[in-house]
């Protein structure tokens, strides 16, 4: 964003119309780079699926802003991985177990007073809950 063009009646209120925080969200609401590399290996009845996801760095504004002396929130580049195993029991039944973010990668910690959720981790690209695991049963009737 290179300029805010406000009507004459709102001159001087440009920072209210589009604060530094909102401008940075428009410019960097998502990282400028994201890479996903996937591997799928099938042998017999077992299917293994691995995804490696890399998110580039990003900078977001804070509620108080740099004018109030609060630095912008900088999020470091991070890499996460998801892994799942699917076993085909028969043509109508499959069982999957796996995990997302299996290495428990978390966003860069921030000042809780400056995040959307009041927690030290903001909900950027890969969430703030860390690793999660699951089981899934697929049945065709």
Write a concise keyword list for the protein shown above:
141 residues; mainly beta; 5-stranded antiparallel sheet; two-stranded antiparallel sheet; 2 helices; elongated; Beta-barrel_TonB_sf; cell outer membrane; receptor
Number of domains: 1
Number-wise, the strands total: 7
On the 0 to 100 scale, the average pLDDT is 88
Secondary structural class? mainly beta
Percentage of residues in strands: 35-45%
Radius of gyration: 22 Å
What is the overall silhouette?
elongated
Helix content: under 10%
Order of helices and strands: HHEEEEEEE
User: How would you write the strand order of the largest sheet?
Assistant: 1-2-5-6-7
Report the uncertain regions.
Answer: none
Number of helices: 2
Biggest pleated-sheet summary: 5 strands, antiparallel
Distance between the termini: 54 Å
Describe this structure in words.
The protein is 9% helix and 39% strand. The protein has 141 residues and is mainly beta. It has one domain. The strands form two sheets. A five-stranded antiparallel beta sheet has the order 1-2-5-6-7, with no helix packed on it. Strand 5 and strand 6 form a beta hairpin. The chain starts with 13 loop residues before the first helix and ends with a strand.
SSE topology sketch:
Elements: H1 14-17, H2 20-28, E1 34-43, E2 46-55, E3 58-60, E4 73-75, E5 78-90, E6 93-100, E7 132-139
Antiparallel strand pairs: 1-2, 2-5, 3-4, 5-6, 6-7
Protein name: TonB-dependent receptor
GO cellular component, one term: cell outer membrane
Main location: membrane
